[in-house]
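From the methods appendix. Each design record in this collection lists the tokenized structure first, followed by the designed amino acid sequence. Records were kept in a plain field format so they could be parsed without special tools. The example shown here is representative of the layout used throughout.

RECORD:
FOLD TOKENS (543 positions):
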């Protein structure tokens, strides 16, 4: 007898196309489908009374149709309570571009060809949203405007019917992910069960092998459970069942267990493919910068305090990827080393006037009565002395000089001035240009390797945090925990951390070679060393 569902007072024929504890996935005659809560719905038919088999938690969702046509079914999607929180985090905590990256990470193979469309849809939503790119979802009015702008104009009732399916969160709003799920007829469970670092043919085959093997074992266990039930009774059939139980399909069970183990090893191997990475995030970030990364965007950091809005515009912004090196140069390099560093970067522009920089460095050493030529920066009093010695038109009061240092010269708000800070101000240059120019020698290798090692170490920490979160989820129960267990079984994060560690080892060898070489190639450093030798020869009594 086929299944029938009591709907609006009438029994409607349905087909069971999926099952998990307490729910079945029912497909209606018009092709639409939905999850049915068995505790609140009335279903009749022999299949409805049968016990639900154990859930195969690693089952692969069916590939979605790539053709971008609107889903015909108008039954609202139902979100399993166990994944509701995670789905809300994706649709209501990520901005439009981050949602696009999250979606593409999961469906890169299916929807790479329309990634530009997804980008444009996200930007359109941002334009309609009063919060711009930082918005996360559109209200009903803006959602209808968005659909109309994309050739999906609908009559009022048709729009309301469509929103019943689009608005998975049932808060009368539409996020980019909800729109994409509606357009391509996807489900929240399908989206959240997909790995964010994508899929390969090898991994898909391995996962399908695990699904088939687990399904075979589940079937064998169900057969054995049925035989045990018969064996618990009386009569001839019970006696026959009891004789079969000790060796019931023992070889088949062993084969299924072996197949599961083999599939898991294949999954571990497949997870090491370099193709497995967050391609959606990579593309979105290349298209829209850090703003499109599916997590909280990092704020640009600065090295100085802004006391007023007017002064803030005068300070040099220092970005995290080079601020540490700049602090090292302006507060630990001595004056002549700073002159060499500046000359390395601007040799073509100021190489002919290198003698002027030498004189500036010597003058700062003379003004620095405490540290001499080994010093790295001058305090306010010594700055005034330096300006008077090198600028005939200098006429600032102490207060004016203090304001000048704080607003235009000093890069870390410590009321001091290094030679590099003075030169940047003197030549009208910015710190980022100086710090991102090559030094034209082994110091470039040291700089690059150091930055890459730091970045990769941070990536490892990030992956370790992700793994810890996944393990915490796996310790729970329900669909979310099962999905997390699948991810861990597939080697979640292992390939990424191993690859990063090997890359760090290679970079460390390059860094060590560059640090230990006696060869100096940087033109500024070479000139300063030669100039120092000439000065030493001309001043033999100085030592």
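DESIGN:
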């Amino acid at each position: 007898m086929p299944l029938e569902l009591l709907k609006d007072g009438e029994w409607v024929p349905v087909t069971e196309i999926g099952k998990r504890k307490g729910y079945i996935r029912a497909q209606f005659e018009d092709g639409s489908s939905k999850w049915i809560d068995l505790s609140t719905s009335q279903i009749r038919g022999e299949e409805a009374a049968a016990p639900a088999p154990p859930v195969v938690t690693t089952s692969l969702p069916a590939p979605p149709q790539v053709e971008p046509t609107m889903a015909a079914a108008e039954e609202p999607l139902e979100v399993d309570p166990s994944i509701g929180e995670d789905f809300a985090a994706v649709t209501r905590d990520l901005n439009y571009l981050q949602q696009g990256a999250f979606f593409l990470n999961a469906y890169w193979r299916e929807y790479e060809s329309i990634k530009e469309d997804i980008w444009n849809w996200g930007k359109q939503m941002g334009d309609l949203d009063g919060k711009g790119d930082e918005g996360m979802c559109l209200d009903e009015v803006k959602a209808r405007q968005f659909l109309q702008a994309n050739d999906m104009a609908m009559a009022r009732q048709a729009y309301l019917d469509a929103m019943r399916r689009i608005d998975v969160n049932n808060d009368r709003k539409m996020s980019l992910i909800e729109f994409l799920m509606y357009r391509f007829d996807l489900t929240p469970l399908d989206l959240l069960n997909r790995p964010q670092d994508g899929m390969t043919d090898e991994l898909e085959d391995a996962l399908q092998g695990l699904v088939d093997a687990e399904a075979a074992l589940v079937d064998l266990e169900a057969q054995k459970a049925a035989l045990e039930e018969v064996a618990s009774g009386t009569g001839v059939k019970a006696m026959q069942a009891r004789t079969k139980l000790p060796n019931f399909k023992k070889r088949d069970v062993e084969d299924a267990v072996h197949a599961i183990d083999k599939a898991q090893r294949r999954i571990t191997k497949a997870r090491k493919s370099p193709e497995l990475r967050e391609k959606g995030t990579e593309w979105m970030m290349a298209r829209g910068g850090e703003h499109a990364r599916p997590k909280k965007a990092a704020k640009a950091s600065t090295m100085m305090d802004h006391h007023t809005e007017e002064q803030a515009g005068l300070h040099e912004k220092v970005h995290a990827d080079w601020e540490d090196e700049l602090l090292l140069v302006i507060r630990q390099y001595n004056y002549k080393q700073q002159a060499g560093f500046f000359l390395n970067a601007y040799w073509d522009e100021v190489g002919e006037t290198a003698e002027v920089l030498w004189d500036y460095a010597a003058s700062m050493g003379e003004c620095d009565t405490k540290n001499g030529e080994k010093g790295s920066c001058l305090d306010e009093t010594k700055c005034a002395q330096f300006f008077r010695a090198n600028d005939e038109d200098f006429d600032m009061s102490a207060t004016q000089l203090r304001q000048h240092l704080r607003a235009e010269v000093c890069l870390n708000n410590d009321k001091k001035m290094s030679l590099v800070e003075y030169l940047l101000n003197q030549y009208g240059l910015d710190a980022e240009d100086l710090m991102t120019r090559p030094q034209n020698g082994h110091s470039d290798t040291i700089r690059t390797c150091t930055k890459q090692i730091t970045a990769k170490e941070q990536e490892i920490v990030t992956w370790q945090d992700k793994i810890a979160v996944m393990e915490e989820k796996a310790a729970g129960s329900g669909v979310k925990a099962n999905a997390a267990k699948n991810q861990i079984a597939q080697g979640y994060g292992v390939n990424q951390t191993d690859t990063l560690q090997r890359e760090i080892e290679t970079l460390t060898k390059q860094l060590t070679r560059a640090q230990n070489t006696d060869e100096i190639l940087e033109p500024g450093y070479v000139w300063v060393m030669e100039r120092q030798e000439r000065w030493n020869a001309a001043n033999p009594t100085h030592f």
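APPENDIX NOTE: The beta strands are 3-7, 10-20, 23-27, 33-37, 43-44, 138-139, 173-174.
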